[in-house]
Amino acid sequence: MKRRKPPRPIVSPACLVLLGGWKLWIPRLSITLIGSTVACLSAALNLTVLTAPLYGYEVAILKSANIGAYNQAIVGFKSSMPPDTVFVEYDLKGDSNVGRMYAGKIRASGADLVLAVGTKAALAARLEILDIPIVYSMVLHPTKYDLKAPNLVGVTTKPMIGQQLGTLRTVMPNLKRIGYLYDPNKTPPLPAETTAQARQFGITFVERQVRSTEEVPPALRELLPDIDALWLLSDSTVLTEESFSFLLRAAFDRRIPVIGFDPEFSRRGALISFWIDPTDIGREAASIAHTILIGGTASAAKSFVPRQRMALNLGTAEYLGIAIPPTVQNMADEVY
Questions:
Q1: Is the Cβ–Cβ distance between 282 and 329 less than 8 Å?
Q2: How many Å apart are CA 68 and CA 46, to the nearest integer?
Q3: Would the pTM of this model clear 0.90, i.e. be above it?
Q4: C-alpha 8, offset from chain centre
Q5: Residue spans of alpha helices (H) in 211-302
Q6: Would 69 disulfide with which of 123, 173, 197, 278, CB 3.0-4.6 Å?
């Protein structure tokens, strides 16, 4: 999977110098004959061959959309790559057809490696690019989309569910039932490992399925009486700009705390949010990319356990009558 560009020529044709049985090809500079002779003789006496530098790697970046998390991942990636790396970026703007067009353009460009950021970018790269190494990142459910190919590797983030549940139990000692909504066509159910960890804390997950945005309000009203907290998942059917306000307000009306996955949610009223910094994911993707570019191999999907980050809303805690221990407050990355 190693793809390097040829050496950059820095001089004109070489002169052959014979010295004591050594044969050295020495670059001849474009100067006077005397200068050429001196240059060749000096190089021969020192038994040194001038080597032309190589071009930097060219990396094509294909991102699904121009959103903050994707851009942060790209910043982390760039900051961890060799300084002479050349980056060429393509933005799908959420359009899969545009993604396939850009992927075809990348395939013909001779790039050394492709970074695919987001699900749509990863799928477009897998379908169109067969002979250039691809590293994908910021894909929530890679197994669901069959992101497998000989030239495809990726960063999969493993959330620290046990740590999150432990923090929630510290904040809410009487927490027993956590509810969540999801569209099974977009989001898989919680894995058995997660539910098993929850049982160790005496917590049960309660789910309601929805298949359209219109089903969200009645499903939420049915769910709220049976739970102690509402956990938001990254599901585009359940969670939109409009529905977030409704979900938060409906939960507050029943004094139900909301658990988010982005600090913005806590800024807007969610009690607590757990998230992973996309910059960390970008740095991990760069580590894999560098391994490939220098001729190494990488597993198809490297499980990455980044540092968990947390945000708290103390105003919401006060409104709900929840006392957040100082130890938890000190752990928070952001407090509102």
A1: no
A2: 55
A3: no
A4: 33
A5: 216-223, 241-253, 263-267, 278-293
A6: 278
What residues are paired with 23 via a beta bridge? 18
The letter for the amino acid at 113 is L
Q: Which of 281, 287, 331, 327 is nearest to 309 (CA)?
A: 331
What ranges do the domains of the chain cover? Answer: 1-53, 58-158+278-307, 161-276+309-335
* CATH class name, domain 161-276+309-335: alpha beta
The DSSP 8-state label assigned to residue 308 in this structure reads E
Tokens standing for residue 247? 């979900």
Q: Would strands 113-117 and 134-137 be described as parallel, antiparallel, or unpaired?
A: parallel
Backbone angles phi, psi at 273, to 5 degrees: -135, 140
CB 238 within 8 A of CB 183: yes
Domain spanning 58-158+278-307, CATH architecture: 3-Layer(aba) Sandwich (3.40)
Of 290, 288, 279, 277, the closest CA to residue 76 belongs to 279
| Tokens describing residue 238 | 């359940």
Would you call 89 helix, strand, or coil by DSSP?
Answer: strand
In the beta sheet, which residues pair with residue 116?
62, 136
Return the structure tokens found at 39. Answer: 């240059």
Span 74-132, pLDDT tens digits: 999 999 999 999 999 999 998 999 999 999 999 999 899 999 999 999 999 999 999 99
Asked if residue 14 lies in contact with residue 6, where contact means CB atoms within 8 angstroms, the answer is no
- DSSP-based three-state secondary structure for 62: strand
